[in-house]
Amino acid sequence: MPELVFFSGTMDCGKSTLALQIGHNRSARGLQGVIFTRDDRAGEGKLSSRLGLVTDAVEASGGMNLYQYVVGLVSRGGRVDYVIVDEAQFLAPEQVDQLARVVDDLELDVFAFGITTDFRTRLFPGSQRLVELADRIEALQVEALCWCGARATHNARTLGGHMVVEGAQVVVGDVNRPEAEVGYEVLCRRHHQRRMTSASAHAGPLSPDVLPVIRS
Ligand SMILES: Nc1ncnc2c1ncn2[C@@H]1O[C@H](COP(=O)(O)OP(=O)(O)O)[C@@H](O)[C@H]1O
Ligand SMILES: Cc1cn([C@H]2C[C@H](O)[C@@H](COP(=O)(O)O)O2)c(=O)[nH]c1=O
């Protein structure tokens, strides 16, 4: 049975890498896919991974009907065996409905990759619709880590190394940016709630939550 699968995780946990691997393994067996993306850091019409791999993709811009796009390809004699969508959090909810239609009416697997929540821990509209419609939601096996060593579950937006909580939901960017720039850092929930990035944790006074080291 074809499926709509949502691979979700924090930033920097390997989603784009997995998207490229799924595409590679299928094309190695002669299958042909459509790869959609939206606002990848590498530029329009690109799907890129921090491991250095990049491939061409179709930019799923705001008003684009993803179902009609695939139908158009097939009706012009093209072959489509599966669909990959990266940065799926940026899709409009109706575009996620169109992906579900690709699965149900065209009987194709759709693999969508994206972060679930924004820097304020709120669902992106595209991710919310994926959670509502997906046949399966998969958490990535490679866990990104908070500076404290716990599994990172949330995305912080940073400026000058410190967490900001105001601003537009969508600001394309990356982790490990120079401190002066707007960037992102993945944190565990505890440190996201306390707005403790690695820079502020190391700059500030010892947190009362940190147990004192007792030397004998
Ligand atoms: N130099 C490196 N060596 C090994 N792995 C790396 C390196 N740089 C990045 N990675 C891996 O790539 C992951 C990020 O992959 P990417 O597909 O770009 O993430 P996402 O799409 O989830 O933001 C990191 O979690 C890390 O595991
Ligand atoms: C948390 C958060 C992220 N973004 C942007 C930043 C990046 O361009 C992408 C995530 O890409 P990745 O491949 O998963 O690293 O989303 C945003 O616009 N708003 C946010 O709140």
From TrEMBL:
Catalytic activity of the protein: thymidine + ATP = dTMP + ADP + H(+)
Catalytic site: 87 (proton acceptor)
Top-rank taxon, per record: Bacteria
GO molecular function list: thymidine kinase activity
Known EC number: 2.7.1.21
Subcellular localization: Cytoplasm
Binding site for ATP: 9-16, 86-89
Pfam family, one: TK
The entry's keywords: ATP-binding, Cytoplasm, DNA synthesis, Kinase, Nucleotide-binding, Transferase
Gene3D superfamilies recorded: 3.30.60.20, P-loop containing nucleotide triphosphate hydrolases (3.40.50.300)
Keyword field contains Transferase: yes
PANTHER family: THYMIDINE KINASE, THYMIDINE KINASE, CYTOSOLIC
Family: Belongs to the thymidine kinase family.
Quaternary organization: Homotetramer.
Protein name: Thymidine kinase
Organism lineage string: Bacteria, Bacillati, Actinomycetota, Actinomycetes, Kitasatosporales
